[in-house]
Design a protein that fits this description.
A six-stranded antiparallel beta sheet has the order 8-7-6-11-10-9, with helices on both faces. The protein has a five-stranded parallel beta sheet with strand order 2-1-3-4-5, with helices on both faces. The chain is 51% helix and 12% strand. The longest helix is centred in the middle third of the chain and has 42 residues. It has 505 residues and is an alpha/beta fold. It folds into three domains: 123 residues, Response regulator (Rossmann fold, 3-Layer(aba) Sandwich); 147 residues, Beta-Lactamase (2-Layer Sandwich); 181 residues, Hypothetical protein af1432 (Orthogonal Bundle). The protein is elongated and about 120 Å long. The protein is built from 19 helices and eleven strands.
Length: 505
């Protein structure tokens, strides 16, 4: 397969004139399409690819002026150059032709050299106009694609290969007639194991197909010389001169390759090929820009993820520091986080809430840093004065966490995780929905874990006993201490509580 031949529509009601035009154009590499009247010509333009129109002026049914006006009135086809063929050289005809939108005139009987020269000149003008239109469309598409990338950008869940797949969908031709777009796209990249893989994308019966390519294609892609900007564009003759080995290898797996653009970096090589027209630096820059955008977002995503990991590690470290003087120096805080996430998920809370409560609930007892070891590990009942000190640890926790926006939920949990739904909790005796939902979830998760754990003043309880106390009460712990919605969620998933406890003990 080579670049598409220019298609010339010749319109004349005289068969002899059509034969003469065909005899002039065919030997010069043009593809000739014929029509014998105006309506037939418009139908050809509507249903076929036409690059230029040679249009007889005087025809029955619909003259050349009207045909030209209708071509130029069409937004889809107005860029097709029209040459009017006329036996009259009258000034009025030329003015009327210009008003109809014609680009040029040829007087009958026409000269073969003149026909070829004017056709070649207008096709070159059309090619430049098409390039300008393509550049505008590419810029519009690039702008829209960039807006879509950034609007939907989630740095914690960014999928680089999904982004590259979106680029492929944006630029690849969905049919052979779409000569503004490449028919094939090669994507080479290093997978998670560090191995370099290569795939070819193409449309097969309207469906985007992905075909793995062998290592030899990858090797030739890596040898492709790319400019400092990271991109190269090669048209048909240049392909044969500069990368004939790659073209030869690709031809074994697809139609012969030509007119290609290649973006190459240490992370990915993306090669778009088989455009049905010449490619330019502007096409190359568009491809380079969209791939670079994805690479930038990938880098940004990695940095954000590293910051999130560091943030989570810091939160966990602070939570473990708060546990140092307590009886349980094991996995209490992690279990409470998992319990909370399980309850929140069962209650239908949003994914962001579930993720936040899993992490930030582990700071619920950070205020215990202010409590002395003698109180935390006292085997006997606390005195009234000692219990008053304990009742202050939610306030101390909120003070330690502070007012940073990233820890808003953690502060709320620290302050409210001992508030009871019936108003009998502390430090403020809040009740019902006045208690933040995260606090209402944490109190049940924390209570379950406290009952299951051995303490210096009590033995551990099994899962069944713990569930009975939470759901039915034992005099000290009562069902009305908990939000009914949280209690209902616990009733549905308590078996998973036992699994988490067993796993993290």
């Amino acid at each position: 397969m080579t670049s598409l031949k220019p298609r010339v529509l010749c319109v004349d009601d005289e068969p002899l004139n059509l034969s003469l035009l065909e005899a002039v154009l065919l030997p010069r590499g043009y593809e000739v399409v014929q029509a014998s009247n105006g309506p037939e010509a418009l139908e050809r333009i509507r249903t076929e690819r036409i690059d230029i129109c040679l249009l007889d002026l005087m025809m029955p049914v619909m003259d050349g002026f009207e045909v030209c006006r209708r071509i130029k009135a069409s937004e889809e086809h107005r860029n097709i150059p029209v040459i009017l063929l006329t036996a009259y050289d009258a000034r009025e005809n030329r003015i009327q032709g210009i008003e109809a939108g014609a680009e040029d005139f040829i007087t009958k009987p026409f000269d073969s050299a003149e026909v070829l020269a004017r056709v070649a000149m207008l096709l070159r003008v059309k090619e430049l106009n098409d390039q300008l239109l393509s550049a505008y469309c590419n810029i519009s598409r690039l702008t829209g694609f960039g807006e879509q990338l950034f609007t939907g950008f989630d740095p914690l869940h960014f999928d680089f290969m999904a982004s590259i797949s979106d680029i492929v969908h944006q630029i690849i031709a969905v049919s052979p007639e779409m000569n503004e777009h490449p028919q094939r796209i090669l994507v080479g990249f290093r997978d998670e194991s560090g191995e370099y893989a290569c795939h070819m994308f193409s449309h097969d019966a309207g469906r985007l197909a992905m075909t793995p390519l062998p290592e030899i294609v990858v090797q030739h892609l890596n040898r492709l010389v790319v400019e400092e900007a990271g991109v190269v564009w090669l048209n048909q003759s240049e392909c044969r001169e500069k990368c004939h080995e790659l073209i030869s290898v690709l031809s074994a797996y697809a139609a012969p390759a030509f007119n290609l653009i290649c973006h190459k970096s240490s992370q990915i090589t993306l090669c778009a090929l088989n455009y049905g027209r010449r490619v330019t630096r502007y096409d190359a820059e568009v491809l380079h820009s969209v791939v670079t955008q994805s690479l930038f977002l990938k880098s940004l995503s990695q940095q954000v993820q590293e910051n999130e990991d560091a943030f989570a590690y810091t939160v966990l470290s602070l939570a473990r520091a708060a546990e140092v003087n307590d009886d349980d120096t094991g996995e209490h805080i992690q279990r409470v986080g998992d319990f909370c996430a399980l309850l929140a998920e069962q209650m239908g809370m949003p994914a962001e809430f579930i993720s936040l409560i899993r992490l930030q609930s582990i700071l619920h007892d950070v205020g215990k840093i202010h409590l002395v070891q003698e109180i935390l590990k006292k085997p006997a009942p606390l005195t009234a004065e000692e219990f008053e000190l304990v009742r202050l640890h939610p306030v101390h926790g909120a003070t330690i966490i502070g007012d940073h926006v990233r820890l808003t939920m953690a502060k709320s949990i620290a302050l409210s995780h001992h508030e009871r739904y019936d108003g009998s909790g502390y430090p403020y005796g809040l009740s019902g929905d006045r208690i933040p939902i995260e606090g209402r979830i944490v109190i049940l998760a924390d209570q379950y874990d406290a009952l299951r754990n051995a303490r210096c003043y009590k033995p551990p309880l099994d899962h069944e006993t713990t569930c009975r106390i939470i759901l039915q009460g034992d005099g000290r712990t009562l069902p009305q201490h908990f939000d009914p919605r949280v209690l209902a969620a616990f009733r549905e998933v308590h078996g998973k509580f036992a699994e988490i406890f067993a796993k993290l003990t």
